[in-house]
Specification:
The complex is a heterodimer of chains A (601) and B (311). By secondary structure, chain A is of the alpha+beta class. In chain A, 25% of the residues lie in helices and 34% in strands. Chain B has helices at residues 3-17, 19-22, 37-45, 60-65, 72-85, 103-116, 133-139, 148-164, 183-189, 216-221, 234-245, 255-262, 266-269, 271-280, 294-298, 300-307, and strands at 27-30, 50-56, 90-96, 120-125, 168-171, 174-176, 202-205, 208-212, 226-231, 253-254, 283-285, 289-292. In chain B, helix 3 runs parallel beside helix 5 (72-85) and helix 6 (103-116) packs parallel to helix 8 (148-164). The mean pLDDT of chain B is 93. Classes of the chains: A alpha+beta (601), B alpha/beta (311). The interface between A and B is medium-sized, with 25 and 39 residues.
C-alpha cells in the first residue's frame, strides 16, 4: 500500500511544450528513474494512454503520474500532470496547470521558441506559477542554445541564466532536472485538518468501473469509504477506491493535501462529474468551492450524425462519454433533412474536432457522418436584437437582418525570416489585416495579423506549414466579432438542397468555394442510373454547376468457375456499402463525400 | 514446365482417367516465351487439342510496361509452332483499356490477331483486382485508370470490330468463330458440374462449391481435403447460376435448366425485379431464356447487385 506524504515532500508540476519538443519522451525518462526495472514497458511514450495519441504523436488527454523518488536521502512524491501541446487545447492545458505549483517549459534546442511555447508559457505565467525553462535535444548537431536563450529573454522575458539542458532521448541531464524541481517548485499548501476540498481536473470512463475521477487534494484528507459530495453537480457518492497512477493504477486508503490521484465510485451518471468541480465531504462542515475553470468557448461547430438512424441513442451515450473525458465539447440534438437525427457539436478548434470524431468512431464503433465545420456568427436582426448562430441553416432570410458578424482572431505567427513573403500573401488572401512584425532573433520573426477565424479553420495550418518548410507556427487569441459581407451558399444535388453541405462564406469567395465543393462531390458521388446535376447557389443565383453522368457500364471482365465465391462476396460488400450511404433525394451520397467537402477551401 | 514433365504428367493422368479416349476438349494454357516447338509437339502427342496463349498485346510499349517477357514476334512464333504441331483450336488472350491507350492501337492489335486466324479470342478490360500491384498504385493515387466512358466505347467497339472479322461475343470477354467456344468455360458459365484437380483448384459438384488446399506441400499430403467447401441452398445456387449465366449474351440462362438444377424458376423468383429490368431495357425474358440486352450486359454488376438477397 503506498504511503502518504507531508506537503513539504510533494511537488506537483506539468511539462508544457510545443508539439514534438519531446514532452512525452521526458516524461518517460522520469518514469525510468522513479521505477527502474519495474516490469519495464518497452513501449515509448508510456503516459499516452490512447491509441490515437500514439498515432498522431500528440497528447490529447492530460494524465497524472505519481513518481516516488529518493532525493538527497529523502523520500519525495513528484506528481507529473501531463498536458496537451497543440494550439487547440489551451483549455486542457489550463485545467492541468491548476493542479500544479510549477511547470517545466520544455523547448527544443534546435527549433527554439514556437507559437505554442509562447501561448502555454503565458498561460502558466498568468497563474503565477514557477516556470522552469528546459532546453531539450541539446546534443543535436544543430542545437543553438545561446540563440534560444536570447529568444527566451526577448519573447517571454524569462531569465535565461541557469536554464537546464537535457536530452530526453538519452536521459542526459534528466536527474539534474529532478533535483531542480524539488529545489525551485514550491511545495503545495494545504491543511490536512480542514474540511475536504479536492479539485476534479480530469476524468475518464471505464466500461467496468464507471467514471474514473482525477483529483488533486487541496485541503483535508479523502479516505476510502468516505461519503463525498460534488458541489457543482450536487451529487453524492461513496469512495470505493482511491489510488495513484505510477503509471499503473495503485490503490491506497487515503489521499492527503497536495496529493494527486484517482477516485472510483461506480459512477455511471456521466453528468455528475464536471471537470473543475470541487469534491467535499457529504456530512458535517462543508468547504468552500474552489475557483472553477473558465467555460470553454467552442469556436468550430459541425453536425455529427449516425450513418444508421438506429444508432442515434448510442451516439448520444458516446458523446456523453467523450464529454466526460473532454469537457470542452458541447453538443445538442439537431435534425437535418439529408441526414436525419444527429447532434450539433462545438469544438475548440479544427484539430480538436477531428480527434473527437475519430475517438467517437473508434471508441463507440458507430459509423458517423460529419458536416462541414463552421464558426459561430452573430446576426444583427432588423428589430435591433442580435442572435448567435452556429449552423448555416440558421441564417435567416436576408430581409430579416442588417448584418452578419464573424469572429476575427488576432494571430501570432512565428516564421523564419526568409518565409515572410509567402506567409504575408497567405494571410492577405485569407482576408487578413496586418498588424505588426517583430524580429525575435536574426532569422526569426513574429507576424501579427487579424484573421477571420473561418479562414483559419480550413487548411490554414497546412498552408502555413508548407509555406515555411514546416517551421512556421501560430496561435491566436480569443475572437472578437466584426461585420462582414457573408452569404449562405447552398448546394443542390439533383435539384434537392443538401442542407448538410451548405456553408456560410464571404460573398467574394462564394463562387470559388462553390466550384471547389462541386468538383469534390463530382468525384466522390458514384454514378447513378440517371444523370445527377450538382449546383452551388447563393439565394436564387446559381454560381457553379457540375454534372455526374449516368452510370452506363458496370461489369466484371473476368469471372470463371473459381471466381464465383469471390465475385459474390464483392457484390455483397458493395451492397453493404450502399446501405451506409446517405440519400439526398434519390441520390446516394457516400460519407466520404461529406468528409471530402470539408477539405475543400 | 518442361516438355518431359508435361508428357509424364499427362501420361499419368491418362492412366487414371483415360481422357485421351473420352475428352471432348483438352486445353492447355501457355505463355509465348516458353511455348517452343518441342513443347507444342509434346502437348499434342500427350493428348491436348486446344491451346490458350497469353499474348496480352502486340504493342512493345505495353508489353514492357507490364513486365511481359515476350515480344509480339515471339507471340506470333508461338502461334505458328502450335499450328505446325497440329493445334487446330487456338485462343489468344488480350488485355485492353490501358490508360491513355489509343483506340486505334487496340483495333490494330485485333486486326493483327485476326490475320493469324485463331479460332477464339479473349479480350479482357484491364481490371483492378484487390491486392494487385496496379490496384495499390491506383489507391495511392499514382495510377489513373482509363476514363469510364472510354472503357465503355472500347467494350462496344471490340465487339463491332470482332464481329466484322467473324467472331461472336458469346461471353463478356470471350469471342469465338462458330462452334469454337471453349467447352470447359462454357460449362462453368452454365453452372454444370466440374472437378478441379491441383492446388487451389475450384470444384462445383452436387450443389457443393469447394476449393483445394492452396499450399503445394500441404496439398501433397492431403489432396482430397478442401480449404473451403460450401453447400449452396437452392436460392443461393439460383443466384450463382444467374451470376454466371447472364454473362452469356447469346445463350443466357435456361429457365428449364435452372428449375431442374435448383427447383426454382428465376423469372418467378425475381418476378417484380425482372419486370423493372425489362422496362429499363436491361433484360429479355422469353419462354425458356433469360438474357441481357447489350445495355444490360454493360450493367451486369448493377443487375446482380439488385438481385442479391437482403441480408
Amino acid at each position: 500500500m503506498p504511503k502518504n506524504y507531508p506537503t513539504e515532500r510533494i511537488r506537483n508540476f506539468s511539462i508544457i511544450a510545443h508539439i514534438d519538443h519531446g514532452k512525452s519522451t521526458l516524461a518517460d525518462r522520469f518514469l525510468d528513474i522513479a521505477t527502474p526495472g519495474d516490469g519495464r514497458k518497452k513501449q515509448e511514450q508510456r503516459l499516452d494512454s490512447m491509441d490515437l495519441e500514439r498515432e498522431r504523436g500528440i497528447t490529447i488527454k492530460a494524465a497524472a503520474v505519481s513518481l516516488e523518488l529518493k532525493i538527497k536521502g529523502q523520500d519525495y512524491l513528484l506528481n507529473l500532470i501531463d498536458t496537451p501541446g497543440h494550439v487547440d487545447f489551451a483549455y486542457e492545458v489550463e485545467k492541468s496547470l491548476q493542479a500544479c505549483e510549477g511547470a517545466l517549459l520544455l523547448i527544443d534546442a534546435a527549433q527554439g521558441i514556437q507559437a505554442q511555447t509562447v501561448a502555454n508559457a503565458m498561460l502558466a505565467l498568468e497563474q503565477d506559477m514557477e516556470v522552469m525553462p528546459v532546453f531539450n535535444k541539446i546534443d543535436l548537431p544543430h542545437a543553438r542554445p545561446d540563440e534560444i536563450a536570447q529568444e527566451l529573454e526577448h519573447v517571454l522575458l524569462l531569465e535565461s541564466e541557469g536554464v537546464l539542458h537535457c536530452s530526453a532521448k538519452t536521459g542526459k541531464g534528466v536527474p539534474a532536472i529532478i533535483d531542480e524541481i524539488v529545489e525551485r517548485i514550491p511545495a503545495p499548501k494545504g491543511d490536512p485538518k480542514a474540511p475536504l476540498r479536492a479539485l476534479i481536473f480530469d476524468a475518464a470512463y471505464d466500461e467496468y468501473r464507471g467514471v474514473i475521477v482525477y483529483l488533486r487534494i487541496v485541503d483535508g484528507i479523502i479516505r476510502k469509504r468516505d461519503l463525498v459530495h460534488m458541489i457543482g453537480a450536487d451529487a453524492n457518492y461513496e469512495v470505493l477506491e482511491l489510488g495513484r497512477y505510477t503509471p499503473e493504477p495503485k490503490p491506497c486508503d487515503e489521499l492527503h493535501p497536495g496529493e494527486v490521484g484517482y477516485l472510483i465510485s461506480n459512477i455511471k451518471e456521466l453528468g455528475d462529474i464536471r471537470v473543475g468541480d470541487t469534491i467535499t465531504v457529504n456530512k458535517g462542515e462543508r468547504a468552500e468551492v474552489l475557483a472553477g475553470y473558465r467555460e470553454p468557448q467552442p469556436m468550430v461547430w459541425c453536425g455529427i450524425y449516425p450513418v444508421q438512424s438506429k444508432d442515434f441513442e448510442d451516439l448520444r451515450t458516446a458523446l456523453d462519454t467523450l464529454k466526460l473525458n473532454d469537457s470542452s465539447i458541447i453538443f445538442e440534438p439537431e435534425t437535418s433533412e439529408a441526414l436525419g437525427f444527429g447532434f450539433r457539436c462545438g469544438f475548440l478548434g479544427l484539430l480538436h474536432m477531428e480527434i473527437a470524431q475519430e475517438r467517437l468512431e473508434r471508441e463507440s464503433g458507430i459509423d458517423i457522418v460529419q458536416t462541414a465545420p463552421t464558426v459561430p456568427y452573430q446576426i444583427l436582426l432588423t428589430d435591433g436584437t442580435t442572435r448567435d448562430i452556429h449552423r448555416p441553416g440558421d441564417l435567416p432570410d436576408p430581409t430579416q437582418y442588417n448584418e452578419v458578424r464573424e469572429p476575427i482572431v488576432t494571430s501570432h505567427i512565428l516564421v523564419p525570416t526568409d518565409c515572410i513573403g509567402p506567409i504575408m500573401s497567405l494571410c492577405s488572401e485569407r482576408r487578413g489585416v496586418f498588424l505588426k512584425q517583430e524580429h525575435l532573433s536574426a532569422n526569426r520573426v513574429m507576424l501579427t495579423w487579424d484573421l477571420p477565424l473561418a479562414e483559419v479553420i480550413y487548411d490554414f495550418y497546412d498552408k502555413l506549414k508548407s509555406g515555411t518548410k514546416g517551421y512556421g507556427t501560430m496561435n491566436f487569441d480569443e475572437p472578437r466579432f466584426f461585420a462582414a459581407n457573408l452569404v449562405k451558399m447552398r448546394i443542390l444535388v439533383n435539384e434537392v438542397e443538401a442542407d448538410a453541405l451548405s456553408v456560410i462564406c464571404h460573398a467574394d469567395d462564394a463562387q470559388r468555394r462553390g466550384r471547389a465543393v462541386l468538383q469534390v462531390l463530382r468525384k466522390e458521388i458514384p454514378r447513378h442510373q440517371f444523370k445527377v446535376p450538382l449546383q452551388a447557389a447563393v439565394g436564387g443565383k446559381i454560381l457553379a454547376r457540375e454534372t455526374i453522368s449516368a452510370l452506363s457500364k458496370n461489369v466484371t471482365a473476368k469471372c470463371y468457375g473459381g471466381d464465383i465465391t469471390r465475385k459474390r462476396k464483392l457484390l455483397e460488400k458493395q451492397k453493404e456499402g450502399k446501405k451506409r450511404m446517405k440519400s439526398i433525394g434519390s441520390v446516394e451520397v457516400p460519407q466520404k463525400a461529406f468528409l471530402a467537402v470539408l477539405r475543400t477551401d | 514446365m518442361g516438355d518431359d514433365n508435361l508428357r509424364f504428367f499427362l501420361d499419368s493422368l491418362n492412366e487414371i482417367t483415360h481422357f485421351r479416349n473420352s475428352a471432348a476438349e483438352v486445353s492447355i494454357e501457355a505463355n509465348p516465351e516458353s511455348f517452343t516447338d518441342a513443347f507444342a509437339t509434346a502437348a499434342i502427342e500427350s493428348g491436348c487439342n486446344r491451346l490458350s496463349l497469353g499474348v496480352q498485346s502486340f504493342q512493345p510499349n505495353i508489353l514492357q510496361a507490364y513486365d511481359r517477357v515476350h515480344s509480339a514476334d515471339e507471340a506470333k512464333r508461338a502461334f505458328y509452332s502450335a499450328r505446325k504441331a497440329g493445334f487446330s483450336r487456338i485462343n489468344l488472350d488480350f488485355i485492353y483499356a490501358f490508360p491513355g491507350q489509343d483506340p486505334k492501337q487496340w483495333e490494330a492489335d485485333l486486326q493483327e490477331a485476326a490475320r493469324l486466324d485463331p479460332e477464339h479470342l479473349s479480350c479482357y478490360e484491364l481490371a483492378y483486382e484487390p491486392g494487385t500491384a496496379l490496384t495499390k498504385l491506383k489507391q495511392a493515387g499514382r495510377w489513373e485508370p482509363e476514363d469510364e466512358d472510354v472503357c465503355q466505347a472500347l467494350f462496344e467497339s471490340t465487339e463491332n470490330w470482332l464481329s466484322g472479322l467473324g467472331y461472336t461475343r458469346y461471353e463478356i470477354s470471350n469471342y469465338a468463330k462458330p462452334r469454337e467456344e471453349c467447352l470447359h468455360n462454357l460449362a462453368s458459365w452454365r453452372s454444370l458440374d466440374y472437378i478441379g484437380l491441383g492446388t487451389g483448384a475450384a470444384s462445383w459438384r452436387n450443389g457443393i462449391r469447394s476449393k483445394n488446399i492452396l499450399d503445394p506441400r500441404v496439398y501433397q499430403k492431403r489432396p482430397f481435403e478442401q480449404s473451403e467447401s460450401e453447400a449452396r441452398l437452392p436460392e443461393e445456387a439460383l443466384f450463382d447460376l444467374m451470376l454466371m449465366g447472364l454473362r452469356l449474351p447469346q445463350q443466357g440462362v435456361s429457365r428449364k435448366r435452372a428449375l431442374r438444377q435448383t427447383g426454382l424458376d428465376p423469372a418467378e423468383y425475381w418476378c417484380e425485379l425482372f419486370n423493372q429490368f425489362k422496362s429499363n431495357g436491361w433484360l429479355e425474358i422469353k419462354a425458356d431464356c433469360i438474357r441481357t440486352t447489350p445495355r444490360g450486359l454493360l450493367l451486369l454488376d448493377t443487375i446482380l447487385g439488385q438481385m442479391l438477397p437482403e441480408v
